[in-house]
Amino acid sequence: MRRLFLGFLSVWLAALPCGAVEPVAAFPRPVWFRQHFAGPRTHIELQAPRRLSEFVLDGKLELSLKAYLELVLANNTDIALARLQVEPPANAIQRAFADYDPVAQASFSDTRVTQSSISALEGVATVKSDSQPLSLSYSQFLPTGTSLSVNFDGRRDNTNAVYATYNPTVGSQLTFSMEHPLLRNRGGSLTKLNILMARSSLKISGFQLRDMVTALIAQAENIYWDAIEARENVSVASKFVELRAAALDRQQKLVDSGAALPLDIYQPKSDYAAAQLQVIQAKRALAQRENALRMQIGADLDPAVRELPIVLTEPLTIPVLPPPDKEQAVQKAMQARPDRQAIATSLDTDDLSIRRATEALRPNLSVTAGYRSQGVGGTYLETGVAGGLGDALSQMFHFGFPVYSYGLRLRFPVRDHAAAADLADALVRKKADALQLRKVEQNMRLQVLNAVDNLNAARASLDQAQQAREFAGKRFDAEQTKYELGINQIFFVLTAQTDLNVAENLVLNQSLNYRRNLIGLYQVTGQLLDERGIVVE
Questions:
Q1: Could you tell me if 130 and 92 are in contact, meaning their C-beta atoms sit under 8 angstroms apart?
Q2: How far apart are CA 489 and CA 250, in angstroms?
Q3: Does domain 194-351+423-531 correspond to CATH entry 1.20.1600.10?
Q4: Any long-range contacts for 285-290 (C-beta under 8 Å, 24+ apart)?
Q5: How far apart are CA 393 and CA 383, in angstroms?
Q6: Is 27 or 349 the better-scoring residue by pLDDT?
Q7: β-sheet bridge partners, residue 137
Q8: For the residues of 261-282, what is the DSSP string, one character each?
Q9: pLDDT grade for 284, boundaries at 50, 70 and 90
Q10: Separation between Cα atoms, residue 133 and residue 375, nearest integer Å
Q11: Predicted confidence band of residue 385 (pLDDT cuts 50, 70, 90)
């Protein structure tokens, strides 16, 4: 019997999922007591912005595009929120391992009864009894689908009845039981479906996180270039004011010398005031865009940095890139876009759901087996020999009074509407996800084609804007020369100045438009993070 007991125990230990479960606090380690008895920590302390001081130079916050994006990743609140969305799916994996958690239970009670005698065999008019049962159990579900349990039951009974053979009586029994499925949910590949589905959900969340971070980085980089555009607008507007001031000064000298009528001074003055208004508006726009940039890197949260002037050092020169091939760009998007990868992974999750629903339609047939050893002890009244718990345990562990059992348990679904409906729903979900994947791929192709066309158009528009600026500058020089020779009026000079200013702004706008379209192309092809050297952990 001891060999049978040891063999049963060795089989149980070998079947335990060693190394297969997530590490959690286990009894009786100190962390287990802290986790189960200490109060939860509800205080949340948000981290202060990091690394800002590294980019402060001579009282200014100097930021290249690379440094700016590093600060965005470190301090941006939206990115921090996006990262938190991965935590619940990660916790779901640990929750899925709960099926294999062992359960230990214990119970004890003391019942005292006083009642009138109903049998002459009891030998007393009033029967008094005291019963103290103790129960200990340990059970566990194994990855193979087997359920194992060990139960120890002990009992001490005491009575004043005269004809009791043992008084007090001590009984004990040790029971080993096992149930193993033969059809439904047999094997680790089926019992671990919840874990596999949780891991698949975590993988999907990782793709979704990458997609969100890509969108947030694209937004942050556009804000960077918006600030540069606003800065350059201030520069262009200031140069325009200088041109208007020079024209006004020349016209004032002509009026003072009598070479021009006093009425000719109003147009230059009006244009000069309008140019100053452009500078005021451009500076206001620059301040607003710099505030938006500070929020992206968390500088608005740091009193020591939020008031510092910002110097953006990234050059405005446009990179010379060959026109992208449309089909190659589409293929890159198909391979790299995280939103497509997320939906493709959901198809794997659908397969797991279909498998689980199919398994639920099978008959539930299982084999059961059990072994029980028992012992009895106490004071034997016929001989007066005193005994107790030690006698009962000795008999039990010597396995002299065994009880064996085995059997089959069958639950046969004659008709199972719920399981059939679950399977149908799982098939519908997979078909819906397959259609959703096709829709996403169609939208991706359209987005990539449009992004390539937009980038090519932006490049062509920039080339034309640069030519227009060149001709506008030559025209302004010509009108200025004719005006100084006295064969032209101030009106034509002012008009040429206005056209030159418009051309300068157009070149600036088209340069930034090309940058934005390049960011958009990288975003729709899923290459933005790789191009910027960003790794999402």
A1: no
A2: 12
A3: yes
A4: 285/230, 285/233, 286/227, 286/230, 286/231, 286/233, 286/234, 288/230, 289/223, 289/226, 289/227, 289/229, 289/230, 290/227, 290/230
A5: 21
A6: 349
A7: 105, 151
A8: -GGGGHHHHHHHHHHHHHHHHH
A9: very high
A10: 15
A11: low
Q: What global pTM score does this model have?
A: 0.84
Distance CA(229)–CA(504), nearest Å, equals 12
Residues 6+ apart with CB under 8 A from 41: none
Length of the chain: 537
Span 227-244, average pLDDT: 91
Give CA–CA dist 181/146, Å, rounded. 7
Q: 10 Å Cβ neighbour count for 396? A: 22
Token pair for residue 215? 């969108």
Angle, helices 417-484 vs 490-524, to 10°: value is 160
Compute CA 97 distance to the chain's CA centroid, rounded to the nearest angstrom: 20
Structure confidence at residue 318 (pLDDT): 81
pLDDT at 4: 45
Condensed to tens digits (0 to 9), the pLDDT of residues 49-97 reads 999 999 999 999 999 999 999 999 999 999 999 999 999 999 999 999 9
DSSP three-state, residue 408: strand
Give residue for tokens 């497509």: 340
What residues does each domain of the chain span? Answer: 104-141+146-184+364-412, 194-351+423-531
The answer to whether the beta carbons of residues 153 and 172 sit under 8 Å apart is yes
